[in-house]
Amino acid sequence: MVYLTRKAEFSASHFYHNPNFTPEENRRVFGKCNNPNGHGHNYTLEVTVKGAVDPNSGFVVDLKQLKDVMGREVLDALDHRFLNKEVPEFFSNIPTTENLAIAIWQRLAPKLNTAQLHRVRVYETPDLFVDFYGEA
Amino acid sequence: MKAHLTRRYMFSASHRLHSDHLSAEENRTVYGKCNNPHGHGHNYMLEVTVSGPVDEQTGMVCNLVDLDGFVGSEILDRFDHENLNLRPEFATEVPTTENLCIAIYEIMKRGFHKAHLDKIRIEETMMNSFEYAGE
Q1: Is A33 a catalytic residue?
Q2: What topology is assigned to B2-132 in CATH?
Q3: Which of A29, B45, B72, B109 could be bridged to B123 by S-S, CB 3.0 to 4.6 A?
Q4: Chain A residues touching B65 at Cβ < 8 A
Q5: Is A73 one of the annotated active-site residues of the chain?
């Protein structure tokens, strides 16, 4: 079994707000992230796939195909978007880095037919990242 | 859905690697430059990884304000700009980065209960790093 990681970057804006909370609760729980006008990040995405090395190609996965799937399923949908307003997963879910990692996993997993998705890592800043392994 | 969240922090501290169980010559052989009696310092990069179910109301594994608050008061305030050899945590242990990982893990495990503690990882320099996950 060999693991392969591909990186990509995207930039997006978001804000945190739960309609079930009072305005005071939203401000207390989410702090500055509750500003309804939103704010942005340069996100770094790392997608790790795993599989056996194909004896004919020497590849775990066709990198071109992985890059195309990441581009089509993730970057085209998220890059330079306001996550709360333009990405359906976040019309009701809060676009935290945790939920972003889960959403990216769910977008990629059904489309990667030549390798098995192992981990989605999303850096919101260099000092904060979330890993999702598809665990329930 | 279970997610794993990692936060990075920086702190600077001095230390000297020296064991009372070894002779002066053995200490120099084992620890090399790190045995210099006056000590030396590092900019440590600390990574704290916690995990848990993503809360449906907040979308979070744990609130970063809680994690930053705990690490700030219990880890960074304790070790930043300190001489590790003079800290009670290292009264009987050599302040290697291995032992620093274990000490920080134990403090976090005892006092931080907002999410499950997965792992402590410390880069002593850009060229070496250490991890402890309670094994």
Answers
A1: yes
A2: Tetrahydropterin Synthase; Chain A (3.30.479)
A3: B45
A4: 31
A5: no
